[in-house]
Amino acid sequence: MNARNLAIAFAVSVALVLQTTVFSRLTVEGVGPDLVLLVVAAVALRHGSQVGLATGFVAGLLLDLAPPADHVAGRWALALLVVGYVAGRLTSTGEPRPVQWLGAAAASSFVGTSVFALSGIVLSDPAVATGELLRTSAVALGYDVVLALAVVPLTLALLERVEPDRVRVLGLSRP
Amino acid sequence: MSDRLNRRGSLEPHDPRRPRRSLVTALVLTSLALMAVDQVAGADGSSPVDPLRRAVGEVYGPVENAATTVVDPVAALPSWVRSRREMAADLASARSEADQLRAQLASDDYDRNRLQEYDDLTATAESLGYALVPARVTAMGSAQSFSRTVTIDAGARAGLAPDMTVVNGQGLVGRVLRVSATTATVLLVTDADSTVGGRVGSSMKVGFLHGRGDLGDGSRLDLELVDQTYVPKAGEPVVTWGSQDGAPYVSGVPIGTVESVYSSLRETTQRAVITPYVDFSALDQVGVVVPSGTTSDRAVIEVDGSLR
């Protein structure tokens, strides 16, 4: 495992623990922020959709299995790998501007919670009314965008620190 | 594989930032397979994914416990001490409620024959005895996951096992779903998948309480009574009905009060809306009902209210 993967694993773990402990007490109408989703989006923005996809899958799997999760395993894995893929395709440089990553975070939150909710409807796990679902997704989107202001720059800074951009160091321009 | 021909026939280098199609397919299929395995096997309550959940719980559970301890170290100590008294008080209140029920039964001629039966049951319950293992809620699932579960900082080492009843100072909280060495996952009664056998206090009528999946101050439970001719009154207390060997719910734990009743002509059933005593948005100290004399890594509140 190289430094980059270690850094990603570290960021995902911290986000997972914070999401289930600290931020589960700081909820808005019961909805907490999706920190893990934001970390996946940030990793994908920095390293592209190949790494984003793999990170999303592993992070989602942890979210599915770590207590207190009780939904059908694999739902967050699928949702976050889609997030990783989509966020990775949104920028091509690896150095997203603030407008870009805020937009990417909002899109990621929408895509992630939607895929998760849809998989829940397909599996009817658990039976939740559509109105409740939409309301929750809307609140989550708002909360995620606010938290993205802190989470995405922190993750990008961590990734930049462990692996400075080789292309920029060599003085080449990216396609 | 890394380079491929485009539509115009020229060679295109593979963009390292783009995922290979094989990786996308493999990961998507893995997710879907995992869902299928977990969903299908979920019918009888156990799943091949459970060992994985347990393994991840062993790693992240203690970290979650530690994080919670670090986050509010000041709040932890006083509430720890206070909650023990609260749980003892809860036990006392549950007993007084049982006494009350017995008194009401005695005054009712129609149910006199059932009194003896109930007396026997009470005697059995007292000889079985309920002891409580105190625990703190360390992690909660957010509303986006649409399931109402929490993690508590007591596990197999504290004497916990799946299908144990979880209460707090106000009333019934839920039941233990699974345990790791130091943590346990608790399904709250407000979860949409949760069903609890309930008994309307004043009439002893039994029914089933279903969670709605919502939470916060507005969380409600739906009570569906077995006797469809009986209309419960607003304000009547509802307690657990209990099941064999006290798993997953022991009997006589207060759940909530009847808020309103509505009858459905189409379904020809009476449904009552129950306001739970417990505030599920502010869960902290809970107690897990264990058999008296359980060996535990922490102090256990015994049947008579003493600490052991």
Automatic annotation (TrEMBL), chain A:
It comes from Nocardioides flavescens. It holds the Pfam family MreD. The keyword Transcription regulation does not apply. It is a multi-pass membrane protein. The chain crosses the membrane at residues 72-90, 102-123, 138-159. This is Rod shape-determining protein MreD. The keyword Hydrolase does not apply. GO terms for biological process: regulation of cell shape.
UniProtKB/TrEMBL annotation, chain B:
Residues 142-289 form the Rod shape-determining protein MreC beta-barrel core domain. The keyword Transcription regulation does not apply. GO terms for cellular component: plasma membrane. Pfam families: MreC. The keyword Lipoprotein does not apply. Keywords: Cell shape. It comes from the Bacteria. GO terms for biological process: regulation of cell shape. InterPro entries: Cell/Rod_1, Cell/Rod_MreC_2, MreC, MreC_beta-barrel_core. Involved in formation and maintenance of cell shape. Belongs to the MreC family. This is Cell shape-determining protein MreC. It comes from Nocardioides flavescens. The lineage of its organism: Bacteria, Bacillati, Actinomycetota, Actinomycetes, Propionibacteriales.
